[in-house]
Amino acid sequence: MIKNIGIVMPGVLPVPAVQGGGIEQEIELLLRSNEKNFQFHFFVFTVKNDKATNLQGKFKHTTFINIAPWKISVKFGNLTQRLLQHFGIPFYYFPKHWFYSKVSTKISQLNLDQVIVENVPRAAIYLYNKNHFHSWLHMHNSKRFQLFSRKNRIFESITGVIGISNFILNDAVQDQPNLIDSKLRIIRNGVQLEKFSTQSLNPTRLEYYQHKLAILPHEKVVIYVGRTLPQKGIQQLIDAVKVARKTVKNLRLLIVGGSFYKGTTETKKISDSFITCTGFIDNSELKYLYKIADVAVFPSIAPEAAGLVQIEAFCAGTPALVTNSGGMAEYSLSEDFVVKLGPDFVNRLSEKILRLLSMNLKDDPLFIESARKYSMKYTGDNALRRLAEILS
Question: pTM higher than 0.85, yes or no?
Answer without folding.
Answer: yes
